[in-house]
Amino acid sequence: MSGDWRVGYSHGDAGAFHAGDPVALRSATFHTVASPTLVLGSAQPDADVDHRVAGALGVQVVRRRSGGGAVLLLPGEFVWLDLVIPAGDALWHDDVGRAMVWVGQLWQVALAGMGVAGEVHRGGLETTAWSRRVCFAGAGTGEVMHAGAKVVGVSQRRTRGWARFQSMCHLRWRPELVAALVSPPRPTAASLAPVAQAAPVDAESLRHRLIAGLPRPPARVLVASAVGPTRYSSASVRWPSRRPRGGSRECSRGVSHPTSPTTCGSPYASALQR
Questions:
Q1: Backbone angles phi and psi of 70, in degrees to 5
Q2: What CATH code is assigned to 5-242?
Q3: Beta strands at 162-170 and 149-158: parallel, antiparallel or unpaired
């Protein structure tokens, strides 16, 4: 069996990215968004979202095909990694929970190399009052935690032919925005503040570390840049020289790091006051 990984880069609409089925081959795809997006879990009720607030904030609401609660994606403020393995792969595990442990270990090692501490959660699902509605408010097997706060979230969808692991970490955690997007009765920003821990690192450097840490280092890595269905071509590992919009180190499109949401003319604070 080939140990090759297909490494892809996708930028654009998160709904279109999540809608498609992957090819049953080892692949690692990093996705970035063009605009603020709230991604609901596959079975999460649409009524969990305050659509009036989402509209005021300019947040698109889409749905992924893996389970769990909502995840807020702001341009330049997260790293999202989709991992696919075919059935029968050495990384495949019939136990759905244990199947996600290697994903957490990949993230744990990459983040540790950048000074971000974390431990892979190996226990069962741990819920809280808000975990059904907010992904980072609970803990599942394979997710990376630190001092009770989630650093990396992991969800999974599988068929007879493949397993798709969707994982992400926040470069900045925005509890005030997440709380506002939940329909009443909603959590307070103060109650959500401690449930997640951001990783204040350079996104491109983290992507490189994740690629380098993929299990069973391949003889060659296939790299792609695509929006929608990912297309691949043989190449050496490289990334576009420009950063995605809203880079984590610069003020762009009203988003800054790590200052408050009111800096650089951010629309978020004013919208929340409406």
A1: -70, 145
A2: 3.30.930.10
A3: antiparallel
